[in-house]
Task: structure prediction
Amino acid sequence: MIKIAQISCGTEYSGIQREIEKAASMVNAEIIFPDVSYEYIKETTEIIGFEVQSSGLQLMFARARALVEGLVDADAVFLATCFRCAEGALLKNEVRRYLQRESNIPVVMYSFTQHTKADELLTRMEALQTIAERKQLLARKRQEGLTLGIDSGSATTKAVVMRDNEVIGTGWYPTQAVMLSANKVVNDALKEAGVKLKDIEAIGTTGYGRHTLGKQFKAKLIQEELTVNSKGAVWAANRQEGEATVIDIGGMDNKVITINNGIPDSFTMGGICAGASGRFLEITSNRLGIDISELGGLAMQGNPKNVSMASYCVIFGIQDLVTELAAGVAKEDIAAAACYSVAEQVFEQQLQEVDIREPVIQVGGTSLIEGLNKAFEDILNLKPIVPKYSQFIGSIGGALLSSAMIGEE
Amino acid sequence: MKIAIFPPNSLILSDLVERAGHEPLTIMKELGDRVKNVEIDSPPLNITPEEPSKGLKYASAEAPSGVRGRLAVFAPIFEEADAVIVFKNAPMSFGCLGCARTNEFLLYMIRSLQVPKLIVEYPTSEEESKIVIKQVFDFLKEVGHHD
Result:
């Protein structure tokens, strides 16, 4: 059982402590609170120099310091403050920077409301648990044997067959019924690879439908998408050594993961707002009467600054685009504005929670939308790498990691 | 040398720095440059919604826009400085940013800067004032020698 140090302020009074502990226990982890003395808190505030008024926040920095100094033993850190607390937001970010600078402990941040439920925290806890407990597995750099990876995403289902570190078959289909879509993509990937399901030596599943698929396909690896996707991303981009940041904008949520030598050490996950997801681009395409595959090319010909958007919201933002379209703004500009809106929101909401390390690897189905890549390039002032098979990285990660389990029962 | 002061709009501190032959970095100058810029028209300070976005360099999106907007203007002043003088717990009439959260963050940021710093408590009596002013001049003389 791994120990997750909870460094937080306000969880008890928000009535969500039980949910945090429930999410941790679901991944067989234990929540611990680093014990520190009053003197230690005072000393920390003096040493660190962040003299916040709230003593609960002063305690957070002292607890982080206790971990850095090895006074308390923990495998991962869950860092949380109340949503909309200004002082908490400022301090939490500095505690995160401090922990990442001074230690190798994986950290995840969260801003909670009174409605936070264990299910929302589950993927984050699972990823922390994987990073802390399965470092050896995540350190695997080569795929071996004949394996299959299936990624059951919210918008699309993908499958990849790999043999001896090469992708030999792929399948891609919109997610409808989980099993139906999975059967279709698996058959397509097997057909392209020229192999039969019975020949496959190990299967790895990831994504929202991973548990259902894992059971049906008797997968050897059933793993959340944060760690699996990051592994697939560094493999596809051939960046397994050194540092990198993976931006994965999916159909329903998005992830930003920082990586050191192929192993994730911190991540942030969106999922509250569809305005920062592929869904926003899908709806824009529908309103423009084009297929989503055409949106990126169209956006490359437009200028986002010609469009006035007052909101990132999937309802109100789209309404702005429709109003501008009716006012005679070019389709190209609308497409560019939609791409810019998604990139800007991911930048403002999520990229702030991690320290960007170059290179930036952009993956997921949305990475095929050139206009979105261009928007990120403009905002980040650097060119993200979009590797071959960028839309299949979850399946690649599943095939690669499951190959470590060939021969295991 | 470029000397940043805290509070960054303290006229008294700014004057002391000038008297010692250094250049005070103040928000009066920063904001003055903005309001004189004919290119921007966002009264009263010519701060646009771009500033809170620029403030994301220092604080996350969760921090209020007013904090991030202030940091976008004030934090670069301290990053540019060769030395910093801080008067802690000064009354607002001495100089203030109008935001306790921005104060806390800037003081924390100043602590992490790799430049000479003089951090003193705001004096509350004539005797204390004389001591502190001497400390300020000694500090300014000292950093001047290293220039």
Summary: Residues 2-146 of chain B form one domain. The mean pLDDT of chain B is 90. Chain B has one domain: 2-146.
